Amino acid sequence: MNSDNISISSKSPKKTKLAGKILGQLSHSGLLILLNGEMGSGKTTLVQGLLNGIGSKEIARSPTFIIIAQYPADINLFHVDLYRVTAEDSIYDIGLDDCISEDSICVIEWPSRYPALYDLPHIKIQIDKIENNKRLLKFSTNQKRFQSLLAKFSSKIKERI
Ligand SMILES: Nc1ncnc2c1ncn2[C@@H]1O[C@H](COP(=O)(O)OP(=O)(O)OP(=O)(O)O)[C@@H](O)[C@H]1O
Ligand SMILES: [Mg+2]
To answer: Given the CA of residue 81, which atom of ligand 1 is nearest to it?
Structure first.
């Protein structure tokens, strides 16, 4: 079920933020988002839109040095960046287990550091850098209950982007 089922071309950071915002507006607690893409592809940029979409006025910044940032909004959002995590750091050491819950939304950059995350119910976003300002955003899920969310996202974003 994990096929890339929605692809969106973004020509600017603003468009990537808009994609995040629309997804945020449709999101509910219990959602886990695994966010892939090379350095500087726009993962944190998308999270900025997402945070906005769930009703926060805060600006998401890369949590690289602190690993986990928490944004209390209408729904509590955890923004996790696993870039600096190594195989010796367990999910429990860094407190990641507390972030993945039915009460919050959890977005994880560099999820491939812990491949077992892909076994959990999630929405996967892949951002590919095409050229300077152009990105391809791909959305998919391994979970039936998130498919309707992605279907709504797809129709809403096609009106706006
Ligand atoms: N279409 C686009 N979408 C998103 N970002 C874009 C786009 N075009 C250019 N950019 C620029 O690319 C950069 C993306 O940075 P960002 O911090 O979001 O990347 P990242 O994937 O989180 O990187 P890292 O892996 O280092 O955390 C920003 O400087 C942004 O302005
Ligand atoms: Mg980042």
So the answer is: 27
